[in-house]
Design brief:
Layout (H helix, E strand, L loop, with lengths): L11 H7 L15 E7 L5 E7 L1 H4 L4 E5 L33 E2 L5 E7 L2 H10 L1 E6 L6 H5 L14 E9 L2 H7 L2 E12 L8 E7 L4 E6 L4 H12 L6 E4 L15 H13 L3 E4 L2 H7 L3 E12 L5 E11 L9 H9 L9 E8 L14 H19 L3 H8 L8 E6 L5 E4 L4 H12 L1 H11 L25 E5 L5 E5 L8 H13 L6 E2 L1
Parallel strand pairs: 1-12, 10-11, 14-15, 19-20
Antiparallel strand pairs: 1-5, 2-4, 2-6, 3-5, 7-15, 8-13, 9-10, 9-12, 13-14, 16-17, 18-19
Length: about 525
């Protein structure tokens, strides 16, 4: 039998998804279900002095208006970081604010009603009094002398420092014949998946167990967070990720609502569903990037890189949800596929009174590629060398593979590049592009009404850190194979690709494998 690996087969999910038969979180309907809407702070930094839920409770259909006083398990450290780190100061991330909000969009109350529209009306009717506080809205403001502190228990707004060193940077710059320095900002951006976030929590009165459906990339992390906040064993909680309409990293960690809605359901003893509105998404869902770099590159006149240094900040918003993982990713990927004998990176992880940042498409790697390519272009201009030639001059050679960068990845393992022929791949790109012809046209059109921009980028990307994913394989008496996995899909075709892998291992046709 031909191996299913490498064979083009139709994606199993496509017909279901494109014909509207996908089953997303908001498609779930249960008897006795209640709907939640969240009252969110319009202030970036304020004390909550009064919450009056009476106007909301007076509305037909409203079942409850709950605050942190009603569900104290949602205050304090209810929302754990996805990746704890000793490099980042401990902090408290409530699922429901208890007297203080640190960012616009932070939840202060939740309204539960018979239907979603009634819950939204109830949330709009809740009266909240705030005492606005001075705020740290930017990295500069957060690091200024006497800046308002995001966390009162911290001495300042620096969550932690991240650094990496290879070789002797000072000696490298002393040997450089040309040094260029530029400041670059990578602004905050955010994913916008077609499906917003949502949570459905169902308490089971008979045995005290919970079933939680969530539009998430990390259902097992959600299970751990819910168990911790509610004081339950993880074996008592089942978390299901149904069809998920896009994630792009924005659904790749635990959110306050993942903990809040199960707590509300337990309090009321009924199923409760919350679905994010598109307006909520802009303040209640995580963004990413938000870095500012000062980068120096030292080269010889023949283009050889002798030293590279970057000093940068990352604005985490109010809560460093991913610790310094994104910062480490940027630091480790910045040298890219090039030989950089002397490298120094210094990063300051800063908290501000903004919605928190997490991961989005590349999670620190695009920032690294952008910064490196900009400084390479500036160096090429400074020494009068073609940008492509400068890059090719410094690519790691095949005879240096496997190549050790001297840095350590975010799992604590030394970074080693797998064997590859970078120069050959680069030359192939230039050939396919017909680079020389375009460079000639670029020169000819310079100063005209129709100039040509020509950019090049070469980068490397670290793989997932593991440790590994497990799976249960069951073979029925009729020969059907059932594959049970814990990996949530957001469009990556797990039902097809993992069936191919399983079929190849067992020597059966892929159509006999059910994922």
């Amino acid at each position: 039998m031909t191996s299913p690996i490498g064979t083009s087969i139709k994606r199993r999910e496509d017909e279901r998804l494109v014909t509207g038969r996908g089953r997303y979180l908001d498609d779930l309907r249960l008897p006795g279900i209640l709907h939640a809407a969240i009252v969110r702070s319009p202030h970036a930094h304020a004390r909550v002095t009064r919450i009056d839920g009476a106007p909301a409770r007076a509305l037909p259909g409203v079942i409850a208006v709950l605050t942190g006083a009603d569900i104290p398990e949602c205050t304090g450290s209810a929302v754990p970081p996805l990746v704890p780190s000793t490099s980042i100061r401990p902090y408290r991330h409530p699922a429901l604010a208890a007297g203080l909000v640190r960012a616009v969009g932070e939840a202060v109350a939740v309204v539960v009603a018979d239907d979603a529209a009634c819950a939204a009306d109830g949330a709009a009717a809740v009266v909240v009094d705030y005492e606005p506080l001075a705020l740290a809205a930017t990295v500069d403001a957060a690091q200024a002398t006497g800046a308002p502190r995001v966390f009162d228990e911290w001495p300042d707004n620096v969550a932690g420092l991240t650094q990496g060193d290879v070789g002797d940077v000072e000696r490298g710059f002393s040997e450089a014949q040309e040094v260029v320095e530029i400041e670059l900002a990578v602004p905050r951006v955010a994913p916008l998946p077609i499906e917003p976030r949502g949570v459905l929590a169902v308490p089971q009165a008979a045995d005290g167990r919970f079933t939680v459906w969530t539009a998430s990339q990390v259902p097992y992390s959600v299970r751990t967070a819910v168990a911790g906040a509610l004081g339950m064993g993880e074996e008592s909680i089942r978390v299901i990720a149904p069809d998920v309409g896009g994630g792009f990293g924005g659904k790749g960690h635990v959110y306050p609502e993942d903990v809040l809605i199960p707590a509300v359901a337990r309090r009321l003893g009924r199923p409760v569903k919350w679905v994010e509105t598109r307006t909520e998404h802009f303040t209640a869902s995580a963004a990413d990037r938000d870095q500012r770099h000062v980068v120096r590159l030292g080269v010889r006149h023949d283009g050889e890189i002798v030293a590279l240094e970057t000093s940068f900040t990352r604005d985490h918003g109010a809560y460093p949800m991913l610790s310094d993982v994104i910062t480490i990713n940027t630091m480790n990927h910045l040298p890219g596929p090039y030989r950089v004998p002397n490298y120094r990176a210094r990063a300051v992880n800063v908290v501000t009174n903004k919605p928190f940042t997490a991961a989005y498409r590349g999670a620190g790697r695009p920032e690294a590629a952008f910064v490196m390519d900009r400084v390479l272009d500036r160096a090429a201009r400074a020494i009068g060398m073609d940008p492509a030639a400068l890059r090719r001059r410094n690519l790691v050679r095949p005879d240096a593979m496997p190549y050790r960068t001297g840095l350590t990845y975010r799992d604590g393992v030394a970074i080693v590049y797998d064997p590859a022929d970078y120069p050959a791949a680069f030359d192939r790109v230039l050939e396919r592009l017909d680079y020389d012809r375009w460079r000639k046209q670029q020169q000819e059109r310079r100063g005209s009404s129709r100039p040509i921009g020509l950019g090049l980028s070469a980068y490397v990307e670290g793989t997932g850190i593991g440790p590994f994913e497990g799976a249960d394989v069951r073979v029925d008496t009729d020969g059907t194979v059932k594959l049970l996995i814990g990996v949530a899909s957001q469009g990556q075709s797990h039902e097809t690709t993992l069936a191919q892998i399983c079929a190849a291992e067992l020597g059966v046709p892929p159509e006999r494998v059910i994922v």
